[in-house]
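Hi, here's the filled form for the chain we discussed.

Project: internal
Contact: R.S.
Residues: 219
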Amino acid sequence: RDKKINYLKNEMVRRVLLSQAAQDRGLDRKEEVQKALESFKQNLLVTELVRDETASVEVSSKEIEDYYNSYKEQLKEPEERRIREIVVSAEGDAKDVLIELLKGADFASLAQTKSVSASAKNGGDLGYIKKGVRSPQFDDVAFSTILEVGRTSNYFKGSEGYYILKLEAKREGKAKTLSELWEDIKSGLKFLKQQQKLEDLIGKLSRDAKIEITEGAIK
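And the returned structure, exactly as it came back:
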């Protein structure tokens, strides 16, 4: 209570006094102030209308279940791939390494001796990674549909030098349960239904209103 009283005395009263003084000087009649007040009023009314119009929107359990069953595959966690890398500084070095690999050299051993990446100590093994963790150039090769398990890529230019990758293994993304995704799906569907309700309202208002845009007044 004491904090509220202090706030009333020190903040609210001061604000009212200053606001009244501004009105006494006619500052509220300045064009820029009028425009700002009108803009604030408009934004406030739009916010309240949106809240009022969408307050009754609900999503049923059946809608959530139907959405999950329809998009279950797309809702899975992304595929992961176990990748090894060899990174060298010069294109000539990359060509030499690639030739050794084509001759049957062990990828992990070459990574330990030739690679300049921090992964060299692990034989170039990056473990299982998801798309989007590394650079787009890296992902284009590592997650290419033509790179098969046990095969080595051609060399390519990347952020740290020239890369050669080997795909060791793949594993499919884990499917998420309905209970895990329930709230996310509910929120997403509710947002879409709210947006649709607003679009319907705007469409109705547009049909009933007479709107004129004076293009010559636009600067």
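Let me know if anything looks off before we file it.
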